[in-house]
Amino acid sequence: MISVRNRLLIWLLSAISLAALAEDLWTYQQAKVALNAVFDGRLQEVAIAAADWSGKSSASQSEGNSGASSTLLIQAWDKRGALIFDSSPTIEFPRATSVGWYTLPWRNDRWRFFSMRTPEGGTVRVGETLESRQKNTSRIALRIDQPLALTSIPLLALLIWVAVGRSLRPLTTLANSLVRRKPGSLDALSADRQPQEIRPIVEALNDLLQRVSRALDSERQFIADAAHELQTPLTAVRLQLQVVERATTEETKKTALKRLDLGMHRATHVVGQLLMMARLEPDVSQAPLAVVTLETLIVEVLGEYAVIAQERGIDLGASVLEPAQILGERNGLRALLGNLIDNAIRYSPDNGEVDVNLRRNDVWTILEIVDSGPGIPLEERVRVLHRFYRSAASGISGSGLGLAIVKRIADQHHAEIVLGENPNGRGLRVEVRFRNDVTVTR
């Protein structure tokens, strides 16, 4: 696996190399253009010198050619058109008919010429083959460009390596500080003297550490509270077992066994509530969402609790069930409804009433459960939604998890919980309000 640093170096070096190569090619071409201009200037200078020479010299063509060894072709004509000088008589060029720079193809070669008039009315022409010129310009341009090509890329590579290393040093330092930390250390990282680009990472890590710390604290508190809640019924079970062992009469034994059964039932209820709470943790995977018909679900749950209500003579039923569908998790909504009905039955007196209603308006789908129990004082209606909190006014033992479970499920469905009073008298009214326009997300 290539590290981020090496990958960044590779990309930067590749980009710089391509840019340097493009610059070298551009420099090479520009050097050739400049050299062509220089060579054109040389042709002009030689032509001017030849024109001055042709006006002062009366030498014949043969005398002019005897010592000629230049790579340039030099030709001169007098004002009558007679050739008075030719540095390469074997090539047999036609006479110059125009002045200035021009290119002339001649016998498989291309020539670059400069022609001008002499003061005496004659003509001078100086030229060279483009093949020889291109060889010269390419050789000189390459000598100009080669040092840049050989030094720029290695120098840039070194500078990039140093710059990237220094730029990534804060990340390396941050990583090393995390590696050196003890497993239980969740203290915030220092953002002092950190580059501006690194500070968002440090702040994000600090936020994550803070959330992990809160989650761990919540987990420790949950475990401590759960252990405390289980300790009471298990202690009662152990004591009742001792009573059963020491019982001397059948009636004492039956009473102890009955209390033992109640203690086991309470412990089982607490364990079930704890498991339900654990399943509702945000990080625990949930079943897929689906359209849930609430009135059908209410009828099913009411049937499950009908026997329990009948044993205590409680009138359990539904007064208003308007058709309503929401997008949610069916098992979670069943647990919400079950806990609300169980609490209502538990806290209602014998021969009391528990009514379940379902209403719908333009904004809300409202699930309402009304009981005839002691209710919850106004100052405690927020705290009863927390885990393991039980209202002292109720006088009924419980796990303190029922409404906390309801709150967690309602939050997952973006629903609101409103606790109030029974409008028909003594008791508690619980409303769970589902927004009609909210899509449930995980």
SSE order and pairing:
Elements: H1 4-56, H2 61-65, E1 73-77, E2 83-86, E3 100-106, E4 109-117, E5 123-129, H3 130-179, H4 199-246, H5 250-279, E6 290-293, H6 294-311, E7 315-321, E8 325-328, H7 330-347, E9 353-360, E10 364-371, H8 402-412, E11 416-421, E12 428-435
Parallel strand pairs: 7-9
Antiparallel strand pairs: 1-2, 1-5, 3-4, 4-5, 6-8, 9-10, 10-12, 11-12
Helix pairs in contact: 1-3, 4-5, 6-7, 7-8
How many runs of DSSP E, i.e. beta strands? Answer: 12
Largest sheet: 5 strands, antiparallel
Number of helices: 8
Structural class: alpha+beta
Characterization of this structure:
By secondary structure, the protein is α+β, with helices and mostly antiparallel strands. Helices cover 53% and strands 17% of the residues. It has helices at 4-56, 61-65, 130-179, 199-246, 250-279, 294-311, 330-347, 402-412, and strands at 73-77, 83-86, 100-106, 109-117, 123-129, 290-293, 315-321, 325-328, 353-360, 364-371, 416-421, 428-435. The chain has a 5-stranded antiparallel beta sheet with strand order 2-1-5-4-3. The protein has a 5-stranded mixed beta sheet with strand order 7-9-10-12-11, with helices on one face. The protein has a two-stranded antiparallel sheet with strand order 6-8. Strand 1 (73-77) and strand 2 (83-86) form a beta hairpin. Helix 1 (4-56) runs antiparallel to helix 3 and helix 4 runs antiparallel to helix 5 (250-279). The longest helix is centred in the N-terminal third of the chain and has 53 residues, at 4-56. It is rod-shaped. Residues 58-69 have low confidence and may be disordered.
